[in-house]
Amino acid sequence: MLVQIIKKIFSETRNFIMENSIINSLKRKIEENIISKVEIPKLNSISDILYPKYIDKDLQADTEKLNIVKYKDKYFDSHIYLFKYEGIVRKKIIEYKFREKSYLNETFVNFILKNEKICRFLKSYDIITPVPIHAKRKRKRGYNQSEIIAKKVAKNIENLQYISNCLVKQKNTVAQSSLTKKQRIKNVKGVYKLQNEQMLNNKNVVIFDDIYTTGSTVNECAKLLRKANVKKILVLTLAKDFLSKT
């Protein structure tokens, strides 16, 4: 029994060393421009090389459907989302956001761009801006998950300009996912700051975020944008959580 355990530990250790050796070799080649101009995901194992998860077949979206919602008590005009926040979608968004799998943005961007109805809708807007995260959290995570997607969507939608510096998160708050609806509303009060207002004047603006739960975060952002005399505000998210805390 002890011999079998030792063999298993040795085998797993050897595989780990081999995987990291291949990954490090790829990274060196990229840095030395042997492999050039390729956007390589952050690799955690050999399986990330052999199976590119950014074309994950488990994810599915109805590219003919336009999930659009209007709310009576919000500062924005309407909300479009692609998925319900459940199952494999929830799993992949969590991996994208918290598990250092930033390359999954390719999957989500493709779902947005393949939906002709969403793209036609976006063409009537002038600016897309992501919900900002605090600088400290961005340094820790390495990226703003909403920023990456918003930027790529803008590149593929005619006349849609990407602007990231009109909203700034000036306070590093507790994660919204851990709070109730009432706590979420209180948690975002006075957290964001509006700047470069002249860029927003008389414009139609899209606020992009990954998940819509109670809408507290995007509503606080929309409230500030209204002060910049924007004409119309759309909230675009990857998913909508129908099981939010009350």
What does this protein structure show overall?
With 246 residues, this protein is α/β, with parallel strands linked by helices. It has two domains: 1-51; 59-240, Rossmann fold, CATH 3.40.50. It has nine helices and eight strands. The chain has a six-stranded mixed sheet, sandwiched between helices. It has a two-stranded antiparallel ribbon with strand order 5-6. α4 (105-114) packs parallel to α7. The longest helix has 30 residues, at 2-31. The chain is globular and about 40 Å long. The N and C termini lie far apart (52 Å). Residues 5-10 and 33-53 have low confidence and may be disordered.
Portion in strands: 15-25%
Largest sheet: 6 strands, mixed
User: Which CATH class of the largest domain is shown?
Assistant: Alpha Beta
Quickly count the helices.
Answer: 9
Keyphrases for this structure?
16% strand, 6-stranded mixed β-sheet, two-stranded antiparallel sheet, alpha/beta, 2 domains, 41% helix, 246 residues, Rossmann fold
List the helices and strands and how they pair.
Blueprint lengths: L1 H30 L14 H5 L16 E3 L8 E7 L2 H12 L6 H10 L1 H7 L4 E4 L4 H7 L3 H12 L4 E2 L4 E3 L11 H7 L4 E3 L9 E9 L3 H11 L5 E9 L6
Parallel strand pairs: 2-8, 3-4, 3-7, 7-8
Antiparallel strand pairs: 1-2, 5-6
Helix pairs in contact: 4-7
